[in-house]
Write a structure and sequence with these properties.
By secondary structure, the protein is an alpha+beta fold. 54% of the residues lie in helices and 20% in strands. A hairpin with a 5-residue loop joins strand 6 and strand 7. It starts with a helix and ends with a helix. InterPro entries: Band-7_stomatin-like, Band_7, Band_7/SPFH_dom_sf, Stomatin_HflK_fam. Pfam families: Band_7 (PF01145). One of its GO terms (cellular component) is plasma membrane.
Amino acid sequence: MVVLWIVLAVGALCLLGVSTSVRVVQEFERGVVFRFGRVRPQPLGPGIALLVPVADRLQKVNLQVVTLPIPAQDGITSDNVTVRVDAVVYYRVVDPMRVAVDVQDYSSAILQVAQASLRSIIGKSELDDLLSNRERLNQGLELMIDNPAVGWGVHIDRVEIKDVVLPESMKRSMSRQAEAERERRSRVITAEGELQASRQLAEAAEVMTTHPAALQLRLLQTVVEVAAEKNSTLVLPFPVELLRFLERSTPADAATAGPADGRGADPATGLEATLKAVSSRQPQSAFPAESGNAEDRAVP
């Protein structure tokens, strides 16, 4: 009976030893073996790993890419603007031996280095760089984190700045600046349009000067556009040539119609004489009138 108990105890111990000495390493893991405190030269690959009971201790290292968010850091930029910036770091283990031996907690170490590097980048950069030139800042931040991480057996794949939080006063100032910039652009565009329109009008004026009939056609087109709506008023432009004719003929007529005392002619009397002279040279139907009797339409 005693022998049976001894055999059962030995069998239980053997099963316990086998269960503790047989371990499974996943495909994305590597196993670092410590035998009596000394690390083995080569890590164990994926599959079944046989360990020496009591003597060996297995430490598994994950080789997958780790996404590490960096908490938001408060800082002052080089142009004295208070900002709050957060980022994210993507890294992976490339040397399981160094990760297991050289650094106690590599994930925490990477986080602390990332926070310090982010604060350093904020202090060296201007606000415009944080808002518009993030790609260059991401590269600089990646380089700052990767320098110490290489010695720990960790490779930094990518670092990205996620968000930049500005004070409310700075947001209002930037909004006013953007509004002023848009107003400046609109004025410049309007001025350019006026310049192009003036050039086209100058070319049109040259064509009309060469061909006087074009001016008459343009006049008729303007009359058609004005009379398109249902209105009772027809507006006809007064010919400039007639005004020049009146200007040339007014002094002579005014001199003949002036009083004999030599004190000068009355402007109203001179204008009346000029209108009479014009009416005597051309028919009265040449002066359009919009309404009234025949006596009202006649020029005195």
